[in-house]
Amino acid sequence: MSKKSNKTGKDGDYMLEQQIGHLMRKANQRHTVIFAAAMKEVDLTPMQFAVMAKIKDEEEVSQNLLGRLASMDPATVQGVVKRLAERDLIAAKPDVNDRRRHLWTLSKDGEKLLKKALPVAKQITESTLEPLSQSERQAFARTLKKLT
Fold first, then answer.
1. DSSP labels for 86-115?
2. For 89-130, what is each residue's pLDDT tens digit?
3. pTM of the predicted protein model
4. Which domains, ranges and CATH numbers included, belong to the chain?
5. Are 23 and 7 in contact (CB under 8 A)?
6. Which residues of 119-146 are buried (b: 16+ CB within 10 A; e: fewer)?
7. d(CA 145, CA 141)
């Protein structure tokens, strides 16, 4: 049988519950559950949503830039783009300035799906931040931006 956690700890003790990485992981887990439940109807993962939102912002974008804008490494963005293209939510067209490169755009189905998903995304943010006051939300966002 394990001892019950002592939240206060002793001088010099490492208390997992007080570590920023642990707290960030728990907050992310909470957000992930909220996101999955809310986006179930549109069937988008957080990374798929991020890619679609950045394509919408840019209108057309290379895969390399898309990865940087969505904060994904090349292998990850490649997989996300592949899955979205297989669902006909995004489409590639040749870059007129560089024929070796393709530019990604939202398809008509992608535009419709994203239009449905954007208000859901706003509600996800609201639900995630619900325990915080307005001033705490602003401070939290400022603090997170400093860490990224």
1. HTTSEEEEEETTEEEEEEEEE-HHHHHHHH
2. 999 999 888 888 899 999 999 999 999 999 999 999 999 999
3. 0.85
4. 44-147 (1.10.10.10)
5. no
6. ebbeebeebbeeeeeeeebeeeeeeeee
7. 6
